[in-house]
Structure formats: C-alpha cells, structure tokens
Amino acid sequence: MIPTLQTLSKICNVYGVSLSYFFSDPSRHTLAISRKEHFSPIRSYRETLKRIPLHHSPIGTSQCRASMLEFPENQILAASEPGKPLSCLVYVVEGSLQLNAGGIEELLNAGDCACIDTDMTVMWGSASPGRGRVLLVDAAGQ
C-alpha cells in the first residue's frame, strides 16, 4: 500500500519524525557483517603472530579495520617501525600483553585497553603462559 502525503504526515506525527525521514538519502551508512567461517588467519612476523581479520570490506570503503591477534608465548614482536605512525586501540581479551611504547613499558591484563597514537617504535607480546589474544582496531592501510 502506498500512503497519501496526508496519511504519511499523520504517521510522522505519531512517531515523531519529519517527512525527510522517508525521503532523504543517508549521507553515510555502512554495515559489514563477518561470519566466523569466513575468517582466514593472516600469518606474519615469521609465522609467530596470527592475525585474524574480524570483518571484510572492499578496499577504500572502511576507515578502520578490526583484527584478533594471537601472540605466541613469551615472544616480544615489533608492532611498528621507527618513524612510521601507529594509531590503534588494543583490548586484551585473554592472557597478558607486555607493551613497550616509546620506552614506556606496561603490562596489560585481560580486560585492559590501550589507545596508542605514536610515531615511536612499539613492541608487544604475550606476557603470560600460553598464547595471548588481543582485539586490535586500527586505521585501514596501516
């Protein structure tokens, strides 16, 4: 059924929205769903760090990306290169994360979170027995 403009106006009054709600195009809207069975680990750092992308979006359509990182036991790895900016959010899901950012050392435990925005070298790794798991959200292309 296609309502008349008068009926549509009454619907707008009931729900507290304007007519533009029905006739305007959103300026920006993205919804990306990733299913577990579509995840494929990306191996890097000489097969020691496992990176599992948590979403898939075509190149150039997303400004950020989310990944689950699995760190091997007792191994510290470079998260960034000297002089190359790193801007990310890190949330420790399981285990502990040893973080060295610009000479400042921190031990993050499960549930801890760090926002990193630096152009200094960042090193990180599992500081607990077994593998550590970290949720990483960073800018696409980093």
How does this model look, in words?
- This protein is mainly β.
- It has one domain: Jelly Rolls.
- The protein has two helices and ten strands; from the N terminus they run ααββββββββββ.
- A six-stranded antiparallel sheet has the order 1-2-3-10-5-8, with no helix packed on it. Strands 4-9-6-7 form a four-stranded antiparallel sheet, with no helix packed on it.
- Strand 6 and strand 7 form a beta hairpin.
- The longest helix is centred in the N-terminal third of the chain and has 11 residues.
- The mean pLDDT is 76.
Give the helices and strands, then pairings.
Elements lengths: L4 H11 L4 H4 L18 E3 L4 E5 L10 E8 L4 E3 L7 E9 L1 E6 L2 E6 L3 E6 L3 E5 L5 E8 L3
Antiparallel strand pairs: 1-2, 2-3, 3-10, 4-9, 5-8, 5-10, 6-7, 6-9
Rg, Cα atoms, Å:
22 Å
Poorly predicted residue ranges = none
Shape type: elongated
Query: Given the helix and strand composition, which structural class is it?
Result: mainly beta
List keywords for this structure.
142 residues, mainly beta, Jelly Rolls, six-stranded antiparallel sheet, four-stranded antiparallel sheet, 11% helix
State the gist of this model.
The chain has 142 residues and is mainly beta.
